[in-house]
Amino acid sequence: MTAENTQKLDVFGVGNALVDILAFVEEDTIAKHSLQKGGMTLMEAPEQGEYCRTWKTYL
Fold first, then answer.
1. How far is 53 from 30, CA to CA, in rounded Å?
2. CA-to-CA separations, 14 to 11, 17, 43, in angstroms, rounded
């Protein structure tokens, strides 16, 4: 803190971090999972885990 700003603050944050997973997959894999090439999909941890297990050879 500087001499001009001596106010004390309490900071509290809640939330989930966004995590990007980049995988180079075949075109048919994208279509099979109804994904958009170059797109982003928000998913819950169980679904993310399933993709990672399925695509482990691509990661």
1. 15
2. 10, 10, 18
Quote the radius of gyration of the chain (alpha carbons, Å). 20
Q: Is the dihedral of CA 36, 42, 47, 49 positive or negative?
A: positive
Closest C-alpha to 24, from 38, 34, 10: 38
In order along its 59 residues, the chain shows pLDDT tens digits of 566 778 888 887 887 778 888 888 889 988 988 988 888 888 888 998 888 888 877 76
> What pTM does this model have?
0.52
Do the beta carbons of residue 24 and residue 58 sit within 8 Å? yes
What are the tokens at 47?
């679904």
